[in-house]
Request: fold
Amino acid sequence: MTSSIRNRRSRRAALAVALGSVLALTATACGDDGSGGAGEKGNEGSGKGTITFWDNNGGVRTDIWKQIIADFENEHPDIKVKYVGIPAAGAQSKYDTAIQGGGLPDVGGVGTAMLAEVAVQGALEPLDSRLEKSPLNGKLSRNLIDVSKAAGGGGALYQVPTSANNGTLWYRTDLFEKAGLDAPTTWSKFYEAAGKLTDKGKNQFGFTIRGGEGAIAPALDAVYGQTGITSFWNGDKTTVNDPRNVAALEKYVALYKKDTPSADVNNDFTKMVAQWDSGTIGMLSHNLGSYQDHLKALGKDRFRGVPNPTLDDGTRVQVSNPVDGLSLFKSSKNKAAAWKFIEFAVSAKENSKFNRSAGQVPANTDAARDTWIRQAEPTKLAAEALNGSDTKIVQLPYYLPDWNTISKADNEPNFQKVLLGKMSAKEFLDILADQLNKAQADWKKNH
Reply:
């Protein structure tokens, strides 16, 4: 038995224990101290008093959240918000511990990567009806709402999205202009540029491909973006190994060592970004998070960031990026005040303020039109892509308990084998598809 299978089984066993604890807590719950675990039902409360907010990226986002809390308390003097910052790496375990033993907050930051695990344990309040009656209704990106729903299992909305990242193709404008190339806005132009900008004798390459940690998601983004397939599932079977996707992956990985550095096979995003910033490589596929690195290394006039390429007819298909958001906990004894805080934090002014600090795309579509976004072209273009009615987003199955294991530990080494020519693209995608289909069947059996 492989270690990854053992890990999955132990993870499911731990979840079963957690659910058992939830039932026990529900059976014995009493009092009104706000320290409930999952399954406990709180109440609407007075809409006044103190609520607790957990920041799932404590330290990194502490200052901006404290500004938003100050703004909220100024506007709602009868509500106080107790801020608790939790480092991102420990957020999942912190929630799991509180679900089993009590002490959940009223409101918490919950990203899509852990949304399903928190929701399946009965900890979160469904938010559809609240959003329908809220001033936020119609003001949030429909695509991001869809990502949030899909991450929670596809039924109810358990997260009000606050922000998103987006796949970005960074390219060296100076090198493109010198070569007389158009911006790589379509896949055809991307592949043309990758070839024309490569001169191995001068150690110049058209592209840098991510081959190390975190390689699977950008590879899938490139695959679905090229084929235009818009759903990850066809019934209960994944489309990941569709013959069109196999052909697209073959074309993409054929760039390795031909139009990319050989070191790419081991590069995670940190090494890849550093390599692009310090060398003469034409293009880099990453996200908005590396903008400041490029600005510092290259200056604003030598590079540009555009959303990942479209098909030649302008069709934009991209895989879902993780979405951050706010969740209301079922055990809260003051849901009315907690919901007021969520509404305030995701209002246009505050959502704009938060995302300007975070360097991400606002979920609030009014915030996404603010001046600072128009002045930061990569973010502006990403917002337009994410909010575009013609953008088709392939929802990655974040709700599967095995998704992180399958998309990282199980298959990152296989993707490196594909780059090195030791495994075919078809074999790689067939293995990935088999694991996903089994995980989906297992998930459906329990839902």
About this structure: The chain has a mean pLDDT of 90. The first helix runs from residue 3 to 28. Residues 325 and 423 are 38 Å apart (CA to CA). The chain has 19 helices and 14 strands.
